[in-house]
Every structure is written in C-alpha cells, then in structure tokens.
Specification:
This protein has 197 residues and is of the alpha/beta class. The chain has two domains: 4-52, Helicase, Ruva Protein, domain 3 (Orthogonal Bundle); 62-168, Dna Topoisomerase Vi A Subunit, Chain: A, domain 2, CATH 3.40.1360.10. The chain is 43% helix and 13% strand. It has eight helices and six strands; from the N terminus they run αααββαβαβαβαβα. It has a four-stranded parallel β-sheet with strand order 4-3-5-6. Helix 7 links the parallel strand 5 and strand 6 (165-168). The radius of gyration is 21 Å and the shape is globular.
Length: 197
C-alpha cells in the first residue's frame, strides 16, 4: 500500500540493530513527517559520515582522521593498551572516563563455529604494538562469553614472550546488584575475583 521507495527505506532501517520491521516502519514514518527538521539533516549527516569516517590504521577505532584522535592525543598513557572486541566496546569504556591509555580493536572474537580464526582478527597488529618499548601492560577487555574468553586466552599465549603484563577485567557483582538476581556464573566469578576490604 506504500511506494517502493518507502518500502526500501523501511527494509534498510530494519537492518539496523534493535529495529525490527514494525519499529523501522515507525521510524521511517517519523522521519517523513519531520523531513525538514530530521530527515534532511540525517541524510546529510549520513552522506558526510560515509565520505569521511575511516578506520584508524593503528588501533582500529572509527574517526574522521587516521590515526584517530585517541592515538594522536599526547595526554594518553602510552604504556597501556586496552584490547576490545569492537569499536562499541571502546566507546563504552571511553564513556566511563576512567581509562586514559591506548586501545586496540580486534574486530571480533575467535569462533570455530563461525569460521573466525586468528588471521581474521587484528591480533598480529596487537603483538607488534605490544612489543614497543613504552608498552608495559595489555588489558584484555573481551566480553565474558565463551568466544571472548577463548580469544583472551589465545592473546595471552601470543603475548607470553613479549615481556608485558597481561591483565583482564574483573568479573562479578555489578555496582548496585543484588545477589539474589545474579546468575550462577556471575556469582562464581565474583567469588574467584574477591579481594581484601
């Protein structure tokens, strides 16, 4: 009952994470209704982003410059590299404003089921960067999934002879969490990662 152009827009929007066909249809309708204040500026911003955003050749972050703003910032602590699976994880850590070192984006995790091996990830680049004189610690911030932990173990093995400290994020009870609502894996990790108070 609608034009092919609108249907194509709905189909494209439905490919975005978190949007199914119904929510994509609502989003398209909202864009069309506000074409001057929302659709036109969004279209322009998407065009600019498609033309100017690049992947940083050093860390794998997305930015308009290469190297990215994080790699060129002289205030960053160059002795630490935090390894993340994806750019979204990098952005999440940056939101906390609690880490001031460098990053390294792997581009995914090892997964035998999906056919993702070490050569498919940016692991070789990490090994090379970790060998630099000023780097003393590599922080593995992979997700607490089977694939994330497998990747972390593989990287730990690859960095064994480099001479850097390899650390990982603590896992356990989240701030504000109640024990009764946590899963068994989280509670087990919290007990293993306990520390003196």
């Amino acid at each position: 009952m609608v034009s092919q152009d609108i249907e194509r827009l709905v189909a494209l929007m439905a490919k975005l994470p978190g949007l199914g066909p119904r929510s994509a249809r609502r989003a398209v309708l909202a864009l069309i209704r506000r074409r001057d204040t929302l659709l036109a500026p969004l279209s322009k911003a998407l065009t600019v982003a498609a033309d100017s955003i690049k992947t940083c050749s050093i860390c794998g972050n997305l930015d308009t410059g290469d190297p990215c703003i994080l790699c060129t910032d002289p205030r960053r602590d160059r002795s630490m590299i935090c390894v993340v699976e994806d750019v979204a994880d990098l952005w999440a850590l940056e939101r906390t404003a609690s880490y001031r070192g460098l990053y390294h984006v792997l581009g995914g995790t090892l997964s035998a089921l999906d056919g993702v091996g070490p050569e498919d990830l940016n692991i070789q680049g990490l090994v090379a960067r970790s060998s630099e004189v000023q780097v003393t610690e590599v922080i593995l911030a992979t997700n607490a999934t089977v694939d994330g932990q497998t990747t972390a173990h593989y990287i730990t093995d690859r960095l064994a002879g480099v001479g850097v400290i390899v650390s990982g994020l603590a896992h356990g009870v989240p701030v504000g969490g109640e024990l009764d609502y946590l899963d068994d894996g989280t509670l087990s990790a919290a007990l293993k990662e306990r520390r003196p108070v």
